[in-house]
Sequence to fold (296 residues):
Amino acid sequence: MAEGVIMKALSGFYYVDDGSTTTACRGRGKLRLENTTPLVGDRVRFTPLGDGSGALEEILPRKNQFYRPAVANIDQLVIMASEAIPVTDPFLIDRVAAIAEHKGCECVICINKCDLASGETLEQIYAAAGFPTLRVSAKTGEGLEALKELISGKVSCFTGNSGVGKSSILNGLDPNFSLATGDVSQKLGRGKHTTRHVELHRLSCGALVADTPGFSSFDVDRMELCQKEELQDCFREFRPYLGKCRFLDCAHGKEKGCAVLQAVEEGIIPRTRHESYVRLYQQLQAVPDWKRKKKS
Ligand SMILES: Nc1nc2c(ncn2[C@@H]2O[C@H](COP(=O)(O)OP(=O)(O)OP(=O)(O)O)[C@@H](O)[C@H]2O)c(=O)[nH]1
Ligand SMILES: [Mg+2]
Ligand SMILES: [Zn+2]
Fold:
């Protein structure tokens, strides 16, 4: 039996890379019985059938898994954003970053299209919040060396709103790549969902990177999150203040004597981050307990 990583899943086939070749595998019936859906990024065992195809036998234990985008075993999420069209709503970044934080997955904030808009506002917010943050441009190549350093030797997943330039940046990182990229609708200020499936790519610098379909705010609203009491831990810059509020059960919304709010007032915690926290808290509060199906 051989071992490898699922690079993409399309039309019932799992494309497994064992380091030298790619084998198109079909899942064995027993996988279906075990009720596990193989994900891109899964480390798997398979039996090569000699004609370039194979049978997927077993999924090895996962270190983490995401549902949107559907990937497993990710070292870090690279959240792509832009201050040029399509402008990224910081709330989207914050929601995705909170999910990643909850799963113990690192996040890098990568602000693209710096040739069109400086990206300095977003950079300030996320650097202040404590994320590795960088500004790049697929057009001029600015920042791509720094991004290469951040992803080298790791498995990263590019995520972000449609049209922000995830596929363009991957093309810029490796001269052998020519992934499809799409226009941005100036009228709607949105991308056109050019990338249709999740796929892992091996870059010439040795990094493994998943390109994923851009999400819409609809997708982001449906992403799994945590319990409302756990949300405070998903905002890393809140941590020094937790346990220091006047009330033990402080929700850090509008409460008197709240240490988190104090830090917002002092300009230490970025205001938009706190606004996103309050919005997410309210969303989680609106979910009745019986409906909170906890996904890992
Ligand atoms: N000026 C400029 N345009 C860029 C840059 N990066 C990407 N674009 C353009 O933005 C558009 C969208 O780029 P894509 O790479 O398709 O975006 P994406 O994030 O992969 O989009 P989806 O696959 O739909 O999620 C294309 O027209 C790119 O040429 C950049 O740094 N500067
Ligand atoms: Mg794309
Ligand atoms: Zn508080």
User: Anything to note?
Assistant: The chain has a mean pLDDT of 91. The first helix runs from residue 29 to 33. The first strand starts at residue 2 and ends at 10. The CA atoms of residues 68 and 77 lie 12 Å apart.
